[in-house]
Amino acid sequence: VLSGVPRRGGEGRMAAQDRATMSAMWGLPDNKKKGPAPKCFNIASRVQKSSTEQPLSCRVHPVAILKILDAYVRRPEGAKRTIGTLLGWISEGSVVDITDSFQVVHKDTDEGVLMDQDYHKQMLALRQKVSPREVVVGWFSTGSEINATSAVIHAFYCTKDSQFTPTAVLPGPVHMLVDTSLTQQSLGMKTFVNVR
What is the rounded CA–CA span in Å between residue 82 and residue 173? Predict the structure, then answer.
């Protein structure tokens, strides 16, 4: 629950400073007048390689976030995390729009991770029938940190089997880490891109 949400009796009105802080936190402009709610959230950027290259940023649409959280809540008993595919497209030059996601069946073992690649391909084919514009832009996992098995999963998403297509703007798949522990008052999301 956000502290700025009005409560009964008019309590909890946000001060101008709190609104400015919230706007800066979400990457939104500080508007004095009320505007429409954001349709997506800017959560990542990378360091520029040269002065001519634009920084890469990600916009995550709420549907993608909700599907990730739903997959985490419905994960099999005993599973510590959820992984899946991120769908979207590159827009506005160097902005990656993450518009949708779907869970991929997997099992973490002592030796590594077993991932159902056929399930990934079938789900992707079904999703592209509904929305042909959406392509694989990366993958997600829940948890608070990257672990050793993340490299194995990332390696799969770098191959043609995942149907990720490298571009000049996005040379490698995005890895979005969603912290579902909720140890802080906000939902933590981080995105990573392997820059060589």
Answer: 18
Give CA–CA dist 157/128, Å, rounded. 17
Q: Tens of pLDDT along 61-71? A: 999 999 999 99
Query: Does 3 score more than 70 pLDDT?
Result: no
Q: Which residues pair with 141 in a beta bridge?
A: 83, 177
Q: Considering the entire predicted model, what is its pTM? A: 0.71
Number of residues assigned to the chain: 196
Residue among 175, 192, 168 nearest 94 (CA) = 168
Burial degree of 142 (CB within 10 A; 0-12, 13-18, 19+): buried
Other Cβ atoms closer than 10 A to 93: 9
Is 110's pLDDT higher than 70? yes
Question: What is residue 85's three-state secondary structure?
Answer: strand
What is the largest distance, in Å, between two alpha-carbon atoms of the chain? 57
CA–CA distance, 100 with 84 (Å, rounded to integer): 11
How far lies 169's CA from each of 61, 134, 154, 183, 194, in Å? 20, 16, 18, 34, 12
